[in-house]
Amino acid sequence: MIKQRLRILLIEENALDARIAEDFLQEEAPGSYVIQRAASMSDAIVALAERPFDAALLDLTLPDSDGERTVGRIRNVDSNLPIVVLSHHDSERLTTQSLRAGAQEYLIKEHIDGRLLRRAIQYALERKRIERRIEYILSYDDLTKIWNRRTFYERAKTAIAQAKRYHRVAALLLMDLDQFKAANDLLGQAGGDELLRMVARRLTGTVRETDTLARAGGDEFAIFLTEVKKADDVSLFVRRVAASFQKPFVFEGREIFVTASFGSSLHPEDGDNVDALLKNAELAMASAKRAGRNIHHFHSPILNAKEEKRSKMLVALRRALQNSQFRLCYQPLIDIKTSKIIGSEALLRWDHPVWGLVPPDEFVPLAEDLGLIVPIGQWVLVEACRQAQRWEDALGRHLGISVNISALQLNHQDLPEIISKVLEETKLDPKMLELELTESSFVQDEDAALDMIARIRKMGISIAIDDFGTGYSSLRYLNKLPVDKLKIDRSFISDLGTDPDRGTMVEAIIAMARSLRLGVIAEGVETSEQREILMSLGCTVMQGFYFSPAISALEMDRLLEEDRNWD
Ligand code: C2E
Ligand code: MG
Ligand code: MG
Asked: Total structural domains in the chain?
């Protein structure tokens, strides 16, 4: 058997000391060692870079290094190199420090002989082997043989420090397998383990050498990406991973398809330390899972702030009604033919003690999500009808009142009963009430919606289609809808006079309304030019900032008393 000769790097400034050590070893075991000497730290670094060594004999006192720092510097060059320190100092403190810095043995030069030196090298090799084994167990995931969470944390920390120094962007990405529990149940524990191993192998093939891939636990993997320029690069990476999952995983001839959800955060935008990035990537992941899996979400501070505001609003919205925080504003409707106010649209406002006036676009969708729009909408209906009757009683003005009705309210079978009760209580003439529905009301259950509308119209109440032209049913459905009026969406009005195609659209809507004997209202009229064009097209009922914004009931009183001409 050919005995492997050990390559020893002898790092020693003093030529005599070096000679003694070398002689000891060659005499003790002739032909067992190949010894190379380095007289300084810089020589040692060069030698280590040129070829691998099995062990180093190291004097701590070098011309360019001193003390236990010397051990640390060698370890930085080659962390796997077993180190035996040779020192003149019989110092307990220096021994401990050297071992802590990564040396495996500490020998006093005066005590050594060939036998001692030889055994010390052997021990150092053996200790290093055990150290490496322990290090491996601590650093790697036993199942998949990729890094574990602990190593990920350490390596991410180092990578962030580097990214900071060079002002570079980095990304932390979490990946969670979708429905892994189901796969586990299907394949059994051993099969589930094998699936995780296969996933790890595919991921290994996807990451770059500079990235850190780790199993974060369970069916979750973590990847730290260093060469990122922008968020798009993360998406690109995710797409690569997703593409690698398009091929099935094969178990005993059975094909399993796996999808995963991703959440990511960016350094420095989302955090400048591992904990912050992990937390934000987890939040993004949670939102990806909520959004329906097989999906990638970025952490975005704006999104988070929005979600926070949203959840605060949800809580506050539940109390808003009983705390009387809702108000109604009224926006006048003008009839150009007579230049008079003929009615108004009731527009809901939420007067929150801290946030002030919250616009309906922000809270109505939330109220719909919570089903709160039903009681809130009922309040609006009562309040609006009561106000309209007050104008009748106090000012002798017979004014229309338009109330916005959400699709959700229309789904409630008892809506007609509620309305008739409100009319009864407020004594409002049903002809004065108009309900505004959007086209979305007809999308879900068209027959039920049409049935409901028929019941409401029988009571003498009119129905207008709000934001007309923006929904997809639009012109195609129009002849089927039993409605009274169309409210042309303000986006078409705002383009009047500037965008000829849009002008054509308004023209078409008005022409169609006329042929179907439907009324038309133009909303969002802001300029006299728009007013002129609409008039020339035959639309005479208008609403918009050109005339008046939505105002309080009190301000409306004043306008009505003024009774001016709205030309
Ligand atoms: P909408 O029913 O289309 O109401 C018209 C919106 O346009 C109002 O916004 C009004 O202030 C605004 N507006 C009026 N004239 C102009 C103009 O000349 N230029 C511009 N840029 N905007 C104008 P508001 O009050 O913020 O209401 C937004 C939406 O919230 C409403 O759109 C309606 O869909 C909903 N909403 C308001 N009140 C209620 C309610 O009581 N119940 C339900 N379900 N929805 C409501
Ligand atoms: Mg409306
Ligand atoms: Mg509208």
From this structure: 3
